[in-house]
Write a structure and sequence with these properties.
5-stranded mixed beta sheet; 28% strand; capsid protein of prophage fold; Major capsid protein gp5 fold; 7-stranded mixed beta sheet
Amino acid sequence: MAFGKQTYGSEAEMRESLLSIIKNVSPNEDNYFVSNLGKGSPATNTIHEWNTYYEARPTSVTKSVQGAATSYADLTVESRSNNRTSIIEEPVRVSRTKASIAMVTGEDAYGVEKTRALKRLKAKMEYETLNGAYASGDSGVASGMVGIVGAISTNVTAHASGQSFTETILNDMVQNSYDQVGSTYIADLLVVPIILKRRISTFNTNMTRNINASEKKLGGQVRVYDSEVGQTVMVIAHKDLNAAAGTVTALLLREDCFEHSFLVGTGEPHWEDRAVDGDRKNGTYITEMSLVSYAQRASARRTGFATTL
């Protein structure tokens, strides 16, 4: 029996969602987190909540006497965490006349501006993912999600301004993670300003090396560090991380403990036409998103490093 045209029989005619394009096209260090972080369950409200479970290792053991009745203790309960959603948009407005005239390249002017706007939206999403500040969103005030920098609260150290970033400090950061979580959750991604990545490249050459990018989802080659704790750490430079004197920041992250969640229904990045309000074409790329942090104690943040090698 013929059913007409069905989705699973016409894959070639179907387009990827805008989110898949943003996540997969040109993954690079500039927008690493938007390209590579996983997608979590949809946010069903502007305050997005999830549960985490943490149980410390024992520091002593009480033995049982032969024949004694079993003694029961209270079990550790899960804790509730949350973040707000952020609305991020990148508008496009082009006059009717401009939209009607082909550019020097022969391309459609409105289409070109939309392509450029999509890149700007991705950059804004990246900045918010890293540096976003929590805001509840009272009347007339935009709500805001806390980014990765603000989400890390357990392993935080502020060095005196001008501290050199050393191999010992890097291994201390890995140990911070090791001390707080099980071996399967030890941090595996070091995110630093470019000056610190250059500094790391001067470490013992037997300890830092390049590997093929296909192993780490980037274009070209990436540097990794084999820490003394036993964890191999990928090192990337990031333009949005604080590199100002006195606040130069390094983040050591467990990457798969962070995800993006988008407001259910209309939160994923998409294009919306806006009402015609003059002799022009209007529209915007828009998304409503949040950052989920499942185990911030697996990550570490250090600040105060020198701005020179």
